[in-house]
TrEMBL record, chain A:
Protein name: Xylose isomerase-like TIM barrel domain-containing protein
Stretches assigned to the Xylose isomerase-like TIM barrel domain: 43-332
Automatic annotation (TrEMBL), chain B:
Source domain of life: Bacteria
MF-aspect GO terms: lyase activity
Record keywords: Carbohydrate metabolism, Lyase
Protein name: C-deglycosylation enzyme beta subunit
Positions of the C-glycoside deglycosidase beta subunit domain: 4-110
Protein family per UniProt: Belongs to the C-glycoside deglycosidase beta subunit family.
Amino acid sequence: MTDTAPGLPQLGTTLFSLTLEQRAPGNDLAALLRKVATRELGPGVEMVAFQSLRGWPRLDDAAVRKVRGLIADSGLTPSCLAINLDLALQPGRLLSDDEAYEYVAVQLRGAASLGFPAVRVGVECGPEIMTRLLPLAEQLGVKIGVEIHAPLTIDAPPVAALKELFTRLDTEWLGFIPDFSASMRAVPAAVDDAHRKAGIAPELTALTRQLWAQPGPTMAKFPQLEQRAAELGAGQAEIGNLKMIFTMHGRMEPERWADFFPHVIHVHGKFYGVFDGPDGPSDPSIDYPAIVRVLREQGYTGFISSEYEAHAYTGLYSAFDQVRAQHDMLKRLLEAEPAVAR
Amino acid sequence: MLEVPMIQTRGFRNREPGEGFEVRLRLPYYRGLWTNLIEGAAITVDSETFAADGIGWSIDGVEYSLAQLRSSETARWPVDVPAILRVPRSEPLPIGFHDVRADLRLRMSYIPEELQPTIWSEQRRLVITR
């Protein structure tokens, strides 16, 4: 396990990092848990329920016993279960509040039965549903965290509304799960490889990178991208791919992570690759020292789940090796002397 | 055994005379999908494109038209179960290699409407042996 010193954030892995590995023969849940444990990529383990648990959200008692047994045998500590509110499940309408509540509640009960202390939901699980879920969360002893993933920021209206709610309720059972993807300093190089393979012209990727780097809210850039990419001859599918650069890589200043506190219940360490450089391993797209500084200053002692996602762009790297490299870097930064405030 | 890419090389075959052919797709989305979020898949073999509307589906032994897939409230396409697509064609495909392309359109249940649908496109060279 990558143990960190007491009083610091703890490290862990979400099995989502292993999405490509999961597609290889033989890598069932038991095998993936065993490999994470053998490679000492705990102590925390997170998984996406719909991805890792066949039959979710309705597991029978035997399935629950089996999953609990697999986690116990691995020696890993369940940190968080990622669940989903599929709000746009029905064509042409969104789920009603009653339907949304039920859709999440059954998963919250499932998480409790599996022994997870927290669940992750998306921002579509808004203040109304969160408020209704609070008594159940308290009763089950399972915290509910809203993931703040790119392109969301602390200032985005749905996030600001949640912040207001959490402040008002002042409860330990509801909170945020900020994700490194919200605060990136560059678009990962792997994107270029993926676009090249998909036959997307380099000038289209360059245009999107250029718009990405400009100041201003991401959501406002979509129409501009559509228009300028279409002028360069991009089709619908290509524009869809280009838009993903905006939705997956946020530009919120890392220092703003302080505003998520004291309502942070878990952290997602999304990343796209740690590489050896002249000054040792580093990640060109994420400013780890800046984020780690905030987590330390806020006294955060929960988990950081390493979430390797370059598998969406490239199969060149082993997710196991990448999580190892990220853990080593995080541990080094977390345990370094406190940085001088800027 | 499933292959990692969306288009599976196994299972690409002609059906009975007059019934067209089959190709198997693995869901490229990572966490399985309620089938009513599938907008359809267009298949192109060499330069001949077959529209999504006319293609029948089979998932986990259950057969669906595209309309049935889209109206089901309970059917799922698990990440480790390939869908068999039945593509109508009056003549069987010639024996030999074919460039097969799939354009799979999915609605993501949590992504803003203006970003829908998500389209997964892939091309592989497959072989018809009989």
